[in-house]
Amino acid sequence: MQEKKHIASLDGLRGMAAAAVVFSHLDLIFPSLAPFMITGVGGRAVAIFFALSGFLMAYLYGDRPISRKAVADFLVSRFSRIYPVYLVAVLVVAVLSSIPGFDFINPIHGGKEILRHVLLLGSTGVLWSVPPEIQFYLLFPVIWLLFSDMRRYQAIGVVLAGLLALDALDGFPGPGILLVSKLAFFLLGATVGRLQPLLNNRLDGITTGILALTLPFFILISNHLFPNADNAWGLAPAFAGALAVLLVAQEHRISAAVFAAAPMRFLGKISFSLYLFHVPVMFLMGNALSSTLPLYIVVPAALAAALLIAWISYECIETPARRALVSLWHQRGSKILANPQPNTRS
User: Fold this and answer.
1) CA torsion, points 225, 231, 233, 234, in degrees to nearest 10?
2) What span, in angstroms and rounded, lies between the C-alpha atoms of 229 and 182?
3) Per-residue pLDDT tens digits for 1-34
């Protein structure tokens, strides 16, 4: 099957969301910046991440033939991208939390808490968003099955729609690490991701370009503009997030001039490491420099350090770990599924 076109603007959208999360935590490290903050930006940015994840899974895999090997390859590929660098981030936070008198924010204390996070059951700091992401990967093969034959597996669609409706009626309950409370973002993202190949660049008018450029930024500040309008994790922001991803994916020249620009794509490339490590890095920089340098120097230095560490993490942890695990899988486990041993029992 022909490889899907890489949508460069989605890299930039991911980079914008990562930058928004970093911005939202500045007052956590530097409390004097609190008057300049915009409320709700971080949560809305993570919501865009979730919708984007659902979109990409459906866009990349939704029209591929499904099989045991294809599903296993998918799960190994996604796990290899997420878990190794996540595990390093957990260990970094655990080490910083164990230093006496250091008072690291969002700490992980004790063996039990470390184990919870290693097993993807923890919710400290930004780490809370990784468990629902992994849970969605486990659910996606069911969605993939639906996409493979809508008529044959229509019951799956009915069940998912019913679950989403019940979830909405009950206010999207559950702790933050449970997929059920974020299901709308993934499902609506997957829905528009499956629509993307069918649109075939039909949304090419100037209105698409303007909306694609402005809607993601409006979503980020919407909680600040309308603090009482809706549950931050409800259907309305989920729909808005999915629509924003779909519009940006059209790569209209107006929006692509921003989202497909090289700096934005670079941010998108290192976005996961930036997301995981920006708080520890900025905390360390703040502790090291705040007593000797003015804030207008410390903050840019902390941001630059966060970008540098994220890039190093991407190059030295994310990419090598993903390649090594996927290669190991293709050398061993994948071959077992592709060529199962014949039954030799008589």
Assistant:
1) -110
2) 18
3) 556 789 999 999 999 999 999 999 999 999 999 9
